[in-house]
Design a protein that fits this description.
It comes from Flexivirga alba. The protein has 347 residues and is of the alpha+beta class. The protein has three domains: 136 residues, D-Amino Acid Oxidase, Chain A, domain 2, CATH 3.30.9.10; 90 residues, 3-Layer(bba) Sandwich (FAD/NAD(P)-binding domain), CATH 3.50.50.60; 79 residues, no CATH class. Helix content is 26%, strand content 18%. It is built from nine helices and twelve strands. Strands 5, 6, 7, 8, 9 and 10 form a six-stranded antiparallel β-sheet that branches. Strand 2 and strand 3 form a beta hairpin. Helix 7 packs across helix 9. It is globular. 29% of the residues are buried. Bound molecules: flavin-adenine dinucleotide.
């Protein structure tokens, strides 16, 4: 009960303790992967959409200018997630929506551990709390078939919100209501077409090679991203008769994971988010190292770093794709002013 003070003690007969879900922020992971690739010579082009692809190139559209270009390539890998079938119609996906609620951690007695609540009628399915470093806790998640056109931003439905509250509340000391929900977000799992309930479809990844050599990698987990990349590159090397040395992914750290000492002035929070780069995030202007607000530990200096070193171009990049502030509309409104100032100072 000391570790999980937000849990309802009635009828509690025991507990088990484990360590899982240590990803600090998926936005940070994706940014770190892109920057690490750039370190090894990749050219990373954001806001560029592939319109058509073959095994030997792609037609792309620049989202800023609208210009289209033809790119030639020795190999092409289609890694567009739930949109993969738009580039290769031979792929058949059956998207499944996963929705999370966002609450302030204080609504759960500031519990900093995950609590799993079993979903009635299912074996091995849970709704769980996921405490974040910024004082919020996510509660997820659903698994709902999501056919039809793929939206850019899927949204939570009312029945999903009810399901999540109804499943988690019986194990909590204090009942959460809709008033406690400060945000919601949803994503679509790119599951390969199969019979049965979407929650039963395999979460393993698939690598598919088209007759012209276009390789598609789809499905899988964030946790297995290196294995997915390795399998996709191996398939592309085979399909396009390329030569390549042995895979070095297992021993290649991402930026920020080097053992170089970080600046001692950097806070533990910055070190968790930026690793050995934490010192570089600190601003020479001490006022930019202060949290944006009592509810928002992100500092303006983090926005500066994103604009200078992480390819962020606008406010949405800062609030949605370099941090996750945008998940809470009220926090977004507060941070938007600071983000706008940072963008205009940089441009
Ligand atoms: C709700 C939910 C919960 C999940 N929970 C977990 C979890 O707890 N643990 C775990 O390990 N995994 C989890 N996953 C799975 C994980 O998020 C995915 O496996 C992972 O994001 C897949 O990565 P991806 O790069 O293949 O696709 P995506 O992350 O979808 O990336 C595809 C990218 O391609 C871009 N794109 C699309 N079309 C084009 C185009 N035509 N041209 C250019 N770019 C394009 C998109 O903008 C996007 O950035 C979860 C997924 C969901 C939806």
């Amino acid at each position: 009960m000391q570790l999980a003070p937000g849990v309802r003690p009635d009828d509690l007969t025991g507990a088990s303790l484990g360590w899982d879900g240590q990803l600090v922020d998926d936005a940070r992971l994706v940014t770190a992967i892109a920057r690490s690739a750039a370190l090894y010579g990749a050219k990373v082009l954001t806001r560029v959409r592939a319109i058509e692809t073959t095994g030997a190139g792609a037609r792309v559209r620049d989202g800023l200018t609208g210009e289209e270009h033809d790119l030639k390539a020795r190999a092409v890998i289609n890694a567009t997630g739930v949109w993969a079938d738009q580039l290769d119609p031979r792929i058949h996906l059956r998207p499944s929506r996963g929705t999370h609620l966002v609450v302030r951690s204080t609504s759960l007695s500031s519990m900093d551990c995950v609590v799993n609540a079993p979903v009635p009628g299912h074996f091995g399915r849970f709704v769980f709390t996921l405490p974040q470093l910024d004082g919020t806790t996510y509660i997820g998640l659903t698994d709902e078939p999501a056919g039809g056109d793929v939206p850019d931003i899927p949204t939570a439905t009312d029945p999903e919100i009810d399901f999540l509250l109804d499943t988690i509340n019986p194990v909590l000391a204090t009942t959460l209501t809709r008033d406690d929900i400060i945000g919601t977000y949803a994503g679509l799992r790119p599951l390969l077409e199969a019979d049965g309930d979407t929650s039963d479809i395999s979460r393993r990844h698939a690598v598919l090679t088209a007759p012209d050599g276009l390789v598609t990698v789809v499905g899988g987990k964030l946790t297995t991203y290196r294995r997915m990349a390795q399998d996709a590159v191996d398939a592309a090397v085979r399909a396009r008769s390329l030569t390549a040395g042995p895979c070095v992914s297992a021993t290649t750290p991402l930026v920020g994971a080097e053992s170089a000492p970080t600046n001692r002035a950097a806070s533990a929070r910055l070190v968790r988010r930026y690793g050995s780069e934490a010192g570089a995030v600190l601003s020479g202007d001490p006022s930019r190292n202060q949290p944006i607000s009592p509810d928002l530990p992100t500092t303006p200096a983090e926005f500066d770093f994103a604009l200078q070193h992480e390819g962020a171009l606008d406010i949405d990049d800062l609030l949605d794709r370099r941090t996750r502030i945008g998940l809470v509309p009220a926090d977004r409104a507060v941070a938007e002013v600071v983000a706008a100032e940072a963008v205009s100072a940089y441009s």
